[in-house]
Amino acid sequence: LPAGEPLLVAEGVTKKFGGLVANNNMSLTIKTGQITALIGPNGAGKSTLFNLLTGLLPLTSGKIEFRGQRIDGLSSRKIAALGVSRSFQHVRLIPTMSVLENVALGAHRRGLAGYIRSGLHLERAEEASILAEAARQIERVGLAKHMHDAAGSLALGQQRIVEIARALCADPYLLLLDEPAAGLRHLEKEALAELLMRLRAEGMAVLMVEHDMDFLMGLADYVVVMEFGQKLAEGLPEEIQENPKVLAAYLGG
Ligand code: ADP
Ligand code: MG
């Protein structure tokens, strides 16, 4: 799909946890070659929406289309195989394992190349192909020199980038990042922003939950704001920054 075309379209997405409506009639369009930011106060329903988009949770109602195909109701594995990949809000690397092993593990868990049936036993050729793909993605994100270092020995910013390398192994069209800049130092944020801009230039679509407005302003093409499970506003970063409803939501007004 050419840049700017709708890649993922969610309509009327609702998720209830018992009596709690975590997503209420949410709609969202994510376009190719764009970075879309999803913002909103704590508890607004952002992580839940990620879980719905990636098939980790079933929808209560609504529909999600990805590349023209309905994906709501598909397993997370199927959705990943179609090209939706994610990182989690908290780093999930195994600190004592190498960067390469961590990325390969993630690639394997996602069922890289489909033919891998279980983690119990891998044919040598399969293992080699996974390691080669992992190494390729580690190079792509600029961490080749840390390939064999223990993941836990890297700075937090680098660990976040390892997580992105892991997500890239599935060769996604869409990358979902949950608070990628949280807790990072200024230079680490710059490195992360640079990587995301490079991926965007390659045609990748990114949806990220992020609170850091300074980080978002220079980076996001479009911003969607959630509050109480619903869409409060959407628009260009400059518009959102001045939107009175958004300001009120953040100031608790
Ligand atoms: P955000 O990521 O925007 O902070 P979440 O999507 O994590 O918000 O949460 C939205 C609401 O849904 C919160 O009230 C949260 O407590 C609730 N919630 C999230 N996941 C679950 C769950 N698995 N079971 C019950 N309630 C949940
Ligand atoms: Mg969250």
Automatic annotation (TrEMBL):
It comes from the Bacteria. It comes from Paenalcaligenes hermetiae. This is Branched-chain amino acid ABC transporter ATP-binding protein/permease. Residues 8-253 form the ABC transporter domain. It is found in: Cell membrane. The chain holds residues 338 to 590 of 593 of the full protein.
